[in-house]
């Protein structure tokens, strides 16, 4: 039968457990914790206390990770338990913050030779005493209460400044930086260098011919332009020597973020999903809150979003580039058609190529991703492109070419669209469990909706705002086809919504109604 630590003959082997969280600035440094712990052990040398190891866990939240889940302490507990008798920590909340976690550690201690726990700064916390379980349970409850109170204070602060132009904390979107004003509060302002990079990205995407997201990302990485996260890397990233990289998806996500227009944003869970969405904060008056100067004008933003919606990514291979990638589509699934080149080596050492247009829409088959829908067919490039030209010229080859352009008028339509979006957000927040989901708050939400509805009705009677218009380019489609390069033709057709659908035994040219007259 094993005996408690206090009754054991010989030395008491002490493991020092250190933890610091990356979520708060109130934690004492690991160095300070270690110095105090070693002093505490030295003062008990006459009791046989001796240090046998140190478990350092930095950037770890005790509310999210139990001792078993931490890198170093977890390794000692699960793999090196025979090497120590007592775990010493600077303060209980450095060890656990949940009653259930402490109860798990108590059971573990009983099952592993009656190991003990002790606190450097809380003398009453000592498992060698007769009331150790009562004391430990009490302190664990207090630690959990403190963690809950801290969380409530943070949430209360964020809610209190929700409709103010102050910055509540955290990392701002790329393009902005935090500064403290004379009133001592934090606000946002533009970061000139980052704003210049954002404008460069947007311009390079929309130039004719524009670059792809991937090409721009590669260029930014090549010239070592810091990424949004790379401008403020965590200590762990710096210590590991890793670097953040620009990606095509990251560029698109950045350019679609409404925070670039200076709006104050908030994150909320999506009902029934495991992910969150970031949306503008809506005041009780039904307005968005602008907390910094916008990086784009309203016209620039509208054009950029229209471009991003019109083309998700400009994907192409360096060789065998697919012509009319956004125009020629599979008739069965409406997915993109790609130029695929199969290659076969001959016995004489030469290589033969078999180019084919085929569907490239991804699908999952028995847990694996395959490209091409189940009804796909394939076509030789020469035959397909000749057929496309035949249909295009036969339909409107002698008609004047018109280009769809975005016209910024009065902001009525933009504001009306914004109101529609705000109404949708408020309606979502009126569902049970949301901000306006209680009877008390429902009346407030209804008042906001009434004001927005009245404003919408007023705007709907005024002249039209932003809109698409068609501009005559002074050429027929036949003339343009004969004098232009494929990228220019493809870009024009994509902007105008022209599609060429391919089936196994027929083809279909889809032309927007506006172009048919």
UniProtKB/TrEMBL annotation:
Entry keyword DNA-binding: yes
Q: Which SUPFAM superfamilies does this chain map to?
A: Resolvase-like
Q: Which GO terms describe its molecular function?
A: DNA binding; DNA strand exchange activity
Q: Which SMART domains match?
A: Resolvase
| Residue stretches making up the Recombinase domain | 173-314
Q: Which residues are the signal sequence here?
A: none
Q: Which UniProt keywords apply?
A: DNA recombination, DNA-binding
Q: What is this protein called?
A: Recombinase domain-containing protein
